[in-house]
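Translate structure to sequence.
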């Protein structure tokens, strides 16, 4: 059996799709590896011949499709349009299509058109059943999400030999699924449950070792829904990871997603720092207590009793050297009239350059979607694109207009050159170095030189700001120079997105 695994291309101008800056500033082809498909590949029979095409790396050709007996497509919501086109091509070429992933788990029947077999939800338990049915010629069209969450300790090490590590900015592993928090707008609990299921430390280290042996170096994403959902287990993992990093002279640094209550656990913060975690993504969402209560963001409210949100972010960054990326949402019914000003002030004070600003969207399967659907307030489906300003929620015309104005005001303000560069400098000068002093490799040197040319020479309007930051960092915070370059480059991407809302 010849099986083609396809990872659909992500739209260009989105928060996480960095195609524009990857091609301009690096020698890489894509940001993140297709972890889900690589894991699924390891679940397939050993006698199958496998090929993986990541459309973010190379074009999917008809020859690729014609080569295969079956085609497996995995997609998230943001990839749905491209996934549909891939399925149509496979239908035209008379190939059997198997689909899975978050989008195909929550989509409607119309969006499943052309798919022969759908494996919904987590597939550790359903994949063996499907493969046996396929072998017997009795495969069903839909294999629904299992009632019982699978034991992710059954999840195999991803099949790294299907990709070229050098094509990607970062590698990825997953140590746990699920989140103990139940934010109304988030679909994590609906898909993966409220009780985090965690791999054994030895299993995580084995996956890290496999990444190392596959040739990965540098950034690795821990693709957990909330890495600290089970603090006892993650501390055990981190202690072993620290030992492994020391043994191999810190070949990796990590980034991940956590909740703000991380700021209250100094032991955990120290372990993350010592294991090589340099960045965490945290859902702040709102600075309004009423809006946080509305969406069930109780972990934020609980943390705020001990420490203001601004102080929490500052502690993580300025005491432990772990950079914080935050998400903010506009569109809660309880957002105050001056919400835009509050959010802009918050961003300025926390000194974090990277902010994911979104309009509130109701994702299928969430408590928010179910509540608003009953109230007749759903209009269409979410796009999965965090920064397009679109919301699939009905408001009164005046409220909708106010949210639209607030979104554009915040986005264009925080991603104006002056505001962004000021935050970058405030972070760089206040951030204790969280590195092991490793020298730049050839890829890093190329990125540095390209940034000096593209921004410092060709950047026109921001050349002066750029060179001022370069000079100040070299003079006063030299060890954080790599942090500066990284944020200057990512800033180019974010300012480009902001241009959509100016005019």
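Result:
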């Amino acid at each position: 059996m010849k099986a083609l695994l396809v990872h659909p291309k992500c739209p260009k101008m989105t928060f996480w799709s960095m195609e524009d800056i990857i091609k301009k500033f690096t020698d890489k082809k894509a940001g993140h590896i297709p972890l889900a498909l690589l894991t699924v590949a390891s679940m397939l029979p050993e006698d199958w011949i496998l090929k993986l095409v990541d459309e973010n790396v190379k074009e999917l050709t008809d020859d690729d499709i014609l080569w295969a007996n079956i085609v497996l497509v995995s997609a998230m919501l943001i990839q749905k349009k491209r996934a549909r086109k891939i399925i149509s091509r496979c239908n035209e070429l008379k190939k059997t299509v198997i689909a899975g992933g978050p989008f195909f788990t929550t989509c409607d029947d119309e969006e499943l058109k052309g798919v022969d077999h759908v494996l919904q939800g987590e597939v550790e338990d359903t994949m063996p059943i499907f493969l046996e049915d396929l072998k017997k010629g009795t495969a069903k069209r839909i294999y629904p999400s299992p009632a019982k969450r699978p034991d992710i300790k059954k999840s195999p090490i991803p099949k790294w030999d299907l990709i070229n590590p050098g094509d990607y900015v970062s590698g990825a592993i997953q140590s746990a699924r699920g989140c103990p928090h139940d934010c109304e707008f988030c679909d994590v609990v609906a898909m993966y449950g409220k009780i985090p299921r965690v791999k054994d430390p030895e299993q995580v280290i084995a996956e890290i070792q496999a990444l190392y042996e596959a040739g990965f170096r540098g950034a690795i994403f821990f693709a957990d829904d909330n890495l600290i959902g089970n603090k006892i287990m993650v501390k055990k993992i981190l202690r072993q990871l620290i030992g492994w990093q020391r043994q191999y002279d810190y070949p990796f640094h990590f980034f991940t997603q956590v909740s703000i209550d991380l700021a209250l656990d100094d032991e955990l913060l120290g372990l993350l720092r010592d294991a090589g975690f340099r960045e965490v993504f945290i859902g702040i969402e709102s600075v309004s207590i009423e809006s946080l209560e509305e969406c069930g963001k109780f972990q934020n409210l609980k943390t705020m009793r001990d420490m203001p949100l601004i102080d929490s972010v500052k502690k993580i960054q300025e005491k432990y050297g772990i950079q914080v990326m935050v998400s903010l949402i506009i569109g809660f019914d309880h957002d105050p009239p001056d919400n835009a000003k509050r959010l802009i002030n918050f961003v300025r004070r926390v000194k974090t350059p990277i902010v994911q600003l979104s309009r509130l969207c109701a994702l299928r399967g969430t408590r928010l979607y179910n509540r608003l659907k009953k109230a007749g307030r759903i209009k269409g489906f979410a796009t999965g694109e965090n920064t397009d300003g679109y919301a699939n929620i009905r408001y009164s015309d005046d409220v909708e207009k106010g949210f639209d104005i607030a979104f554009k005001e915040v986005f264009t303000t925080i991603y104006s050159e002056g505001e962004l560069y000021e935050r970058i400098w405030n972070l760089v000068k206040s951030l204790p170095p969280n590195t092991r002093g490793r020298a730049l490799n050839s890829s890093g040197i190329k990125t540095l030189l390209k940034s000096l040319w593209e921004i410092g020479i060709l950047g026109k309007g921001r050349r002066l700001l750029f060179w001022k930051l370069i000079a100040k960092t070299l003079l006063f915070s030299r060890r954080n120079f790599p942090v500066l370059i990284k944020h200057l480059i990512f800033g180019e991407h974010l300012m480009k997105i902001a241009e959509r809302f100016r005019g």
